Amino acid sequence: MAPKAKKSGSKKKKITKADRLKQIQEEEEKRQKEEEEARVKYEKEEMERLEIQRIENEKLRKLEAKDLERRNEELEELYLLEACFPEAEKLKRDDRFLSQWKHYIQCDGTPDPSIAQEINTFITLWKEETNETLEEVIEKSKLVLNLIEKLKLILLETPPYDLQGKNIIQYQGSILELQELLHLKFNRATEILLRQASTLADLDSGNMEKVIRDENVTLYIWANLKKNPRHRSIRFSETQTGFEIPRILATSDIALRLLHTHYDHVTPLSPVLTPSQEHISVVTDFVKEEAKSVQAAVSKDLQEENKQQENESNSIHEEETKTEEQGDVKEQMCPVQEEPETTKYEMEMKLLSETVSAAQELLLENAFEKPDFLEEDEVDLCQFTTLGGVYHLDILELPPQCKPMKGWIIVEILKEGLQKYTYPPETTEDLETENVFPPIEVMLEVHENVIFFENPMVARWDAEGKHWKTDGISNVSYKSKERLITFNLETFCPVTLIQDAHINMPYQSWELIPLDVNKVLLTVTTVFTELQIQIKENLCMLASIKVNNKKHSSILEEKWMTPVSFIIALKKAGLNIFPTGHSHLYVVINHKHPSVEVKAYRQIALLSSAFAFCWSKWNTACDSKKVIFQVREHLLKEEPIQNPNWTLLMFSGDRAQSLKINESSDAFSEVLKEETEFHSTLYHMVKDFASQEAMREVRHSNCQFVDSVCHMLLSTRLLSYS
Fold it and tell me: Which residue intervals define the domain IC97/Casc1 N-terminal in the entry (predicted)?
């Protein structure tokens, strides 16, 4: 057996209990020392932090105190600058009166639609005119449509507080009468044409076909004279418009009419924006208070003046009798009854200023809930909008044809006039309706001046319920390149194409840049389009439009219009970037308090002649009582800058401040930018870093220009919908 190997190395020394206690004690002392050092360090850092915070708070307190100290002064200066809004409204009123006067002295025979007597006389006289051809009706329709547009503009352009209820009823009543009469005239003219269908028959088919094109209407008429059961496919020459009719119609005495009105006289009129009783009482109270204060001030000034005159008179005429003195006083007191012209003007402008402010706030009022009275398949006109006009589809009974006899033309005139052919008939006598009376295939050309960002939907007019519905329509297909829509319709009736009214909301970004003296460019970018709008004085123009990043031509380009007319035109073209009171119920928005928005838009408009503004991503990070956007000075003489430095401003309506963060910062913070102060207005905020030339440009801005920019900002609501 081999011997045991010796263990290499010596044995480890055994740690005694005393050593272990000593080691534990050392570790405890070390831990306590580290904790003490950490505590001291923390306390030191905390003291430093608190000191820094105290200094910052003290600094903020001083800045806030400074802001409060000069608040009244800044607000007074802003009030003087914002006098441009009532001044612009006064100019608009003067323009309306001047327009009425020019129309009066022109004496061209056309009525003033705002005067009930004139428009009623026009309607009565036109009703009495008979035997008008389609060409004559179409020509007269231009005047009628112009009168309707004028009435609609009066309702939209007149401030709500200046519109009386009886006037609204009068104007809307006149609009409806003109619309109904115009359609009646088209029906009568169609009847006159169809009486002559046999004389206008096509040599090849033996049927009559006629197409009349105009800037406001396109009329397609087909009369079935041959009643050939094989002739079921109808295509109007040089168009893509047509029908596929069932056999029963191909063998009937009928005429098909498609009256495409490029306007919409079917949809009920939109309610006129009117202030609530609460708003009216606020404005009324303000007017009363202003009247009292102005009257008191005037009386006080005049009484002091009279007292001074009386004292002077007494010193000069001490020897005059008491009766003469009383007579003098009476004569001297007479001027108290007269108000100086300047004071009258000031009071008028104050009243106008309050009216304009209230009207601007009314534009931003939001509805509380969606309409809850919709029927099944009914189109919600708060969510959708009709585009491209209305296609009036009618199957008509062919009237008796005129016959030549011994040099005379004899025609039987039916007392009941033009009659519609009922399809499918109300009683089918146990016939299989689907087989005998199948849906009619309709092919329509989409209006060339309308933009659809998605495939349009088709809606039919329900005459009984007085609304648009989507039932009774099937097999809808749309060819965007050919701008042709095809669908099956169970029965002929007015149809229209609809699109989501909020398809371009919310916006992705926006920018407002000065172009020239009293001229700016507003760019609004959405998911589908980029719109560039120029604004100068009291006019707006569509400068350019891109659809899916490609240049798109529009009939509206290079056409200057008033802001209200411009907004109407853009909506009709499918370029809707103008939210309504219900829009927030259909779009996820960055809600901002209306009073903050109004103040922001007014002050941005004031500065727009010398400063550029644009969207900020941080606007969604702050609460609803604050708005955030970027601003920079932009003088026309300067060369364009590749990467301009923008200042980030936060505004709460009562306070403006420059933020320390910028667009590329990682996190949101409301910390004030170094070496900047609080101000009560945006005007005084930008004044801190702006040049004297820029501020001079602002002070000399045209009042109509500022008002137009403000109206466009209020109408687009960029701060809430982007």
Answer: 30-230
Query: What single letter denotes the amino acid at residue 323?
Result: T
CB-neighbour burial class of residue 50 (10 A; exposed 0-12, middle 13-18, buried 19+): exposed
Please state, rounded to an integer, the average pLDDT across all residues of the chain: 86
Q: What is the pTM of this model?
A: 0.84
Interval 467-490: pLDDT, tens: 999 999 999 999 999 999 999 999
Asked whether 619 and 629 are in contact (CB, 8 A), the reply is: yes
Question: In this structure, are residues 254 and 397 in contact, taking their beta carbons and an 8 Å threshold?
Answer: yes
Q: Distance between CA atoms of 467 and 379, rounded to whole angstroms? A: 7
Locate tokens 């009922």: which residue? Answer: 422
Taking each helix axis from N to C terminus, what angle separates 84-106 and 703-716, rounded to the nearest 10 degrees? Answer: 100
Amino acid at 68: L
Query: DSSP character for 619?
Result: G
d(CA 95, CA 451): 34
What is the rounded CA–CA span in Å between residue 354 and residue 281?
A: 12
CA dist 597 → 102, 608, 626 (Å) = 38, 16, 9
What number of helices (H) and strands (E) belong to the chain?
Answer: 15, 23
Q: How far apart are CA 705 and CA 607, in angstroms?
A: 11
Nearest to 78, CA basis, from 605, 635, 538: 605
Token output for 488 = 């099956």
Q: What is the DSSP string of 334-345?
A: GGGGSPPHHHHH
